[in-house]
Amino acid sequence: MAKRFFIYGFVGTVLETLWTGLNSLLRGNLMLITHTSLWMIIIYGLMAFNEPVFKTLKDKPVFIRGAAYTILIFSVEYLSGHILRQFNICPWVYSDPYSINGLVRPAYAPLWFGAGLLYERLFFFLKDVQK
């Protein structure tokens, strides 16, 4: 599980780097400046604890699976952000008026829906590779 924890963490951090780089481009920054935090490797790595959920939901419709993953990701995002904020090291603060305590941004639901499904595929890929 430790190996997959770091794989999930690495994949999430790479995806976040791509996301922030593309947002930089959309703001007109051709240098494609990105930003993330090493804490994110641990936070994305927590997807390893969702592996039993991936197994349980594997035969459910995509909407059910994606919605469940979105809720789980929002929960981890909120809880980890809350903990990190206690130490003044939370790397994100959402400032839009619909954010929840600046820790969760509901507008990201489609993004987390897709990310959850991507992690599900990654789980089954890693499971097949490790046979």
What's the short version?
By secondary structure, the chain is mostly helical. The protein has 5 helices and no strands.
Write a structural description:
The protein has one domain (2-129). The chain is globular and about 45 Å long. The protein is built from five helices and no strands. Helix 1 crosses helix 2 (39-45) and helix 4 packs across helix 5. It has helices spanning 2-26, 39-45, 51-57, 62-86, 109-129. With 131 residues, it is an all-alpha fold.
* Inertia-based shape: globular
Structural Rg: 15 Å
Main sheet attributes: strand count, strand direction, barrel closure: none
**Can you tell me the number of structural domains?**
1
N- to C-terminal distance: 14 Å
Order of helices and strands: HHHHH
Task: Let me know the number of strands.
Answer: 0
Overall structural class, as computed from helix and strand content, comes to mainly alpha
Mean pLDDT: 95
How many DSSP H or I helices?
Answer: 5
Q: Enumerate the spans where pLDDT stays under 50 for 5 or more consecutive residues.
A: none
**Helix proportion range:** 55-70%
Strand content: under 5%
